[in-house]
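[Solved] Which block belongs to which protein?

Original post:
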Amino acid sequence: MNISDKTHLSETYGQKIGKASVTGYCIKFKALKDINIEILKAALLDGLKE
Protein backbone atom coordinates (compact mmCIF):
# COMPACT_ATOMS: atom_id res chain seq x y z
CA MET A 1 0.00 0.00 0.00
CA ASN A 2 2.91 2.40 -0.49
CA ILE A 3 2.62 4.05 2.95
CA SER A 4 5.97 5.33 4.19
CA ASP A 5 5.18 4.96 7.93
CA LYS A 6 5.10 1.21 8.72
CA THR A 7 2.99 1.70 11.86
CA HIS A 8 0.30 3.93 10.34
CA LEU A 9 -2.02 1.17 9.08
CA SER A 10 -1.99 -0.91 12.25
CA GLU A 11 -2.29 2.07 14.59
CA THR A 12 -5.03 3.83 12.63
CA TYR A 13 -7.16 0.94 11.38
CA GLY A 14 -6.04 -2.21 13.23
CA GLN A 15 -8.53 -2.11 16.10
CA LYS A 16 -11.48 -0.87 14.01
CA ILE A 17 -11.31 -3.05 10.90
CA GLY A 18 -12.55 -6.28 12.47
CA LYS A 19 -11.20 -9.80 12.09
CA ALA A 20 -8.10 -9.03 10.02
CA SER A 21 -4.35 -9.03 10.31
CA VAL A 22 -2.99 -5.53 9.78
CA THR A 23 0.75 -5.05 9.27
CA GLY A 24 2.85 -2.18 8.01
CA TYR A 25 1.94 -2.70 4.37
CA CYS A 26 -0.82 -5.30 4.30
CA ILE A 27 -4.38 -6.01 5.44
CA LYS A 28 -5.22 -9.74 5.36
CA PHE A 29 -8.65 -11.23 5.95
CA LYS A 30 -10.49 -14.42 5.02
CA ALA A 31 -13.95 -13.10 4.19
CA LEU A 32 -15.54 -9.71 3.63
CA LYS A 33 -18.16 -10.51 6.26
CA ASP A 34 -15.39 -10.52 8.90
CA ILE A 35 -14.34 -6.91 8.38
CA ASN A 36 -15.81 -3.43 8.46
CA ILE A 37 -16.01 -2.46 4.77
CA GLU A 38 -16.13 1.29 5.51
CA ILE A 39 -12.87 1.08 7.49
CA LEU A 40 -11.27 -0.94 4.67
CA LYS A 41 -12.33 1.74 2.17
CA ALA A 42 -10.85 4.45 4.39
CA ALA A 43 -7.56 2.54 4.68
CA LEU A 44 -7.37 2.05 0.91
CA LEU A 45 -8.09 5.70 0.20
CA ASP A 46 -5.48 6.68 2.78
CA GLY A 47 -2.94 4.49 0.99
CA LEU A 48 -3.79 6.04 -2.38
CA LYS A 49 -3.19 9.56 -1.02
CA GLU A 50 0.45 8.74 -0.20
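(Second protein starts here: sequence line, then its C-alpha coordinates.)
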Amino acid sequence: MTELTVGAAIDAAAERWPGGCGWVFEDQRVTFDEMRSLTARAAGGLSAYGIGKGDVIAL
Protein backbone atom coordinates (compact mmCIF):
# COMPACT_ATOMS: atom_id res chain seq x y z
CA MET A 1 0.00 0.00 0.00
CA THR A 2 1.26 3.47 -0.76
CA GLU A 3 0.80 6.78 0.99
CA LEU A 4 0.48 8.72 -2.28
CA THR A 5 -2.52 10.92 -2.86
CA VAL A 6 -4.48 10.42 -6.07
CA GLY A 7 -2.94 13.62 -7.46
CA ALA A 8 0.59 12.53 -6.58
CA ALA A 9 0.03 9.12 -8.18
CA ILE A 10 -1.24 10.75 -11.38
CA ASP A 11 1.74 13.13 -11.43
CA ALA A 12 4.16 10.23 -10.98
CA ALA A 13 2.50 8.23 -13.76
CA ALA A 14 2.50 11.27 -16.07
CA GLU A 15 6.23 11.74 -15.47
CA ARG A 16 6.98 8.10 -16.18
CA TRP A 17 4.46 7.41 -18.99
CA PRO A 18 3.09 10.76 -20.29
CA GLY A 19 1.50 9.21 -23.37
CA GLY A 20 0.42 6.04 -21.59
CA CYS A 21 -3.26 5.24 -21.30
CA GLY A 22 -4.60 6.43 -17.96
CA TRP A 23 -8.17 5.31 -18.48
CA VAL A 24 -10.62 4.13 -21.12
CA PHE A 25 -14.33 4.84 -20.99
CA GLU A 26 -16.39 3.54 -23.87
CA ASP A 27 -14.47 4.87 -26.91
CA GLN A 28 -12.57 7.64 -25.11
CA ARG A 29 -8.93 7.18 -24.08
CA VAL A 30 -7.18 9.63 -21.77
CA THR A 31 -3.40 9.67 -21.29
CA PHE A 32 -1.68 10.14 -17.94
CA ASP A 33 -0.53 13.58 -19.11
CA GLU A 34 -4.13 14.52 -19.98
CA MET A 35 -5.24 13.19 -16.58
CA ARG A 36 -2.71 15.49 -14.91
CA SER A 37 -4.10 18.46 -16.83
CA LEU A 38 -7.69 17.54 -15.97
CA THR A 39 -6.91 17.12 -12.27
CA ALA A 40 -5.16 20.51 -12.21
CA ARG A 41 -8.30 22.08 -13.70
CA ALA A 42 -10.48 20.30 -11.13
CA ALA A 43 -8.20 21.48 -8.32
CA GLY A 44 -8.52 25.04 -9.58
CA GLY A 45 -12.29 24.73 -9.54
CA LEU A 46 -12.29 23.35 -6.00
CA SER A 47 -9.95 26.14 -4.91
CA ALA A 48 -12.42 28.69 -6.27
CA TYR A 49 -14.94 27.26 -3.79
CA GLY A 50 -12.51 27.67 -0.88
CA ILE A 51 -11.36 24.05 -0.74
CA GLY A 52 -7.64 23.84 -0.11
CA LYS A 53 -4.72 21.61 0.79
CA GLY A 54 -5.56 19.31 3.68
CA ASP A 55 -9.33 19.46 3.12
CA VAL A 56 -10.97 16.10 2.56
CA ILE A 57 -13.41 15.56 -0.30
CA ALA A 58 -15.20 12.45 -1.55
CA LEU A 59 -14.94 11.18 -5.09
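Accepted answer:
You had them paired correctly. Confirming on the second one: DSSP finds two helices and two strands in the chain.
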